[in-house]
Amino acid sequence: MAPHVKVRQAFAATRALGIPDEEVKPILKQLLRVYNKKWELIEGENFRTLIDTYYESKEDKNIGDGNGSTAGQDGYERPSKRLHLEKQENQHSNSANQTSSSSSEEMASRKASASSPTLYSNSTVEAGLGQISEVLPGKIFKKELSRAKANSIATLPPLTESTRLGHSDQHSPLDSEAKSSADIIRNVSNSNGITGPNTKVLSDLRKDSEVSNSIASTSSSGPTNARRRHCSSRKGCFINLTDITKGAEKVKISLADDPRNEHLPAFNYIPHNIIYQSAHVQISLARIADEDCCSSCMGDCLSSELPCACARETGGEFAYTPVGQLKEEFLESCKSLKVNPQEKDFVYCQDCPIERSRNDSRPEKCKGHLIRKFIKECWRKCGCDMHCGNRVVQRGITCKLQVFLTEEGKGWGVRTLEELPKGTFVCEYVGEIVTNTELYDRNMQKKGRERHTYPVMLDADWGSEGHLQDEEALCLDATYHGNVARFINHRCFDANLIDIPVEVETPDRHYYHIAFFTARKVGAFEELNWDYGIDFDDKDHPVKAFKCCCKSSHCRDMKRRK
Ligand SMILES: C[S@@+](CC[C@H](N)C(=O)[O-])C[C@H]1O[C@@H](n2cnc3c(N)ncnc32)[C@H](O)[C@@H]1O
C-alpha cells in the first residue's frame, strides 16, 4: 500500500481518539525513522504503537510540567504494562531536568512490550524461574550426578558483584531489605545524578550506570533522553532494561518490562566464549597452515569468482551469500540432517565420553553424534578484510533482539524486534568453554534448586577424534557467563533457528562456535527458539526434563505424554 494511504489511515486512527493530526505528525515521522519505514511495526493493532508513543510523549511532557496524569485527553488509558513501566521510570527519573522525547531504543522496546499479549496477563509462570528443573538435552552434556569424584572438585570463580548483570544484596548500602525497590531506584537516580556524568556512582551500580550513561549520551533520536532504564526485579538486583549486554555487543539488547515481577538470573554478559580453566583450546597463527587460510585474498572473498581456501570446508562453496546470509541450499541441507537423521548421518565413538559420563564403570555403546555441516570463516591469517562476506559470525550480533518473559511457562525467552529473512545470522551460543570434568564438578556443586543453564556439547567432530578423555571433551556452559543465547527456549522439530557449527580461529574441529541462523523467515516480535535435541523418553537421564510447552504440533514431549 502506498505510504500516503498509510499516513491517512494513521491519522484516521488517531483522530478517532481526538488527537489532532499536527500532534501525531512528528511522532509518526519519528517512528518511521526509528523503524526504518517499516509500517508493519507501526500499523498493528490499529496503530497501537503510534498511539502509545503519542501518549507517552504527552505524558513525558506532563511529567516535565508536574502533571503526572496517564490518561489522554479523550480518556484513553494505556494498559497496565505501560503504566508499570512509566511508574518505574518516573521513580528513577526523579531528577527534574528530563526531556520529553523517547530514544529509538526505548520506543522499539516499548512497542515490543505493547504488542505482546503476554505482557498484560496476570498469569504466573508455572515452570518459571527458580522452579525450572535443569535439562540437559540429548546433544547436551549428560553427567551421572551420583558419580563419585570427590577429588579435583573445581571451585567456581566467584562472580564479582560489579560484573554481574544482577547484583546480589551484599555490597550496596542501598540494597538493604529495609528499602523498597522504589526507594532503591530513587536513591540510585538521586545519588547518581543521571544527567551529571561526574557524579559519584555507587560501586555496585557502577558498571550498569556507566553503560546507561553512554547509552543515554549516544542516543540520537531527538533531544537527549538521559533517563536511565533500570528495574529492580528483586531485592538488590538491578537490571539495565535498555541493554542487558551492558555495551558488550554492537547492538543493544533490551529487556522487556513486565508486571509479573520475575527476576532475570544473575549472570555475566560476555560476547565471546571464554576458557574457564583447563579446556585445551589452542589458538595460534602458527597452527594455521597456509592451505588452511586464504592469505593471498584481498577485500571480500565472496566477490571473487573462485571460492577461496576457507570455502573448502563447505564443499568448495561459500556458505554465505554476498548479503551475509546463509545460502538456501546450505541451510536446507543442514536442516535435513536434523530433521531426517539417517544412520549415515551419525558418527559413533569407540568410547563415548557421554556414555562414560553416565556410567563410568559400564558405559553403554555410543548412541551416535550427528554429523554436522560446518562453516569455515576467514580469519586473521587470511588476506581479506574484516568486511569480507565470509566473516559473519565473528562480526557478532546485528539483529535487534529483546529478552522477555514468556507466557507459556518457559521462563525468559528471546524475540526479534524486526523481521528476519531466512538464513540470517542471529547470535552465537556463547559461554565458558569447560571440559567434561569441569562440567561434572559444576553439577556436583549445584545446590538445591539453583538453576544451571544448558551446556552444549561440542561433539560435532568426535568421530574423527578417536578416544577422547573427559578432560578433552569440551562444552559451552552459559550459566555464569554467557550471552543472549542463554535465554533462547527450546522448540521441538520445527524451531525457527538452527544451530550450525562454525570454525573461526582454530584449524581443527575440536573447538568451534555454535551459531544460530534463522531456518525460515521470522516475523518481528516472534519468539526465537531452537531444538535442544532433548530426548524426552530418556528416563535414565540424570536431570529431569522439563514439561515441554513449545506448542509445536510435532512436540516430542506431547506425543510421549499422549
Ligand atoms: C537455556 S534456558 C532458556 C531460558 C530460560 N527460559 C530462562 O528463563 O532462563 C532453558 C530452560 O528454559 C525452559 N524452557 C526452554 N524451552 C522450554 C519449553 N519448550 N518448554 C518449557 N520450558 C522450556 C526450561 O526450564 C529450560 O530448562
From TrEMBL:
GO terms for molecular function: metal ion binding; transferase activity. Keywords: Chromosome, Metal-binding, Nucleus, Transferase, Zinc. It comes from the Eukaryota. Residues 87-120, 159-230 are annotated as: Disordered. GO terms for cellular component: chromosome; nucleus. Residues 93-116 have a biased composition (Low complexity). Residues 293-396 form the Pre-SET domain. Residues 187-201, 211-224 have a biased composition (Polar residues). PANTHER family: HISTONE-LYSINE N-METHYLTRANSFERASE SUVR4, INACTIVE HISTONE-LYSINE N-METHYLTRANSFERASE SUVR1-RELATED. This is Histone-lysine N-methyltransferase SUVR4. It comes from Eucalyptus globulus (Tasmanian blue gum).
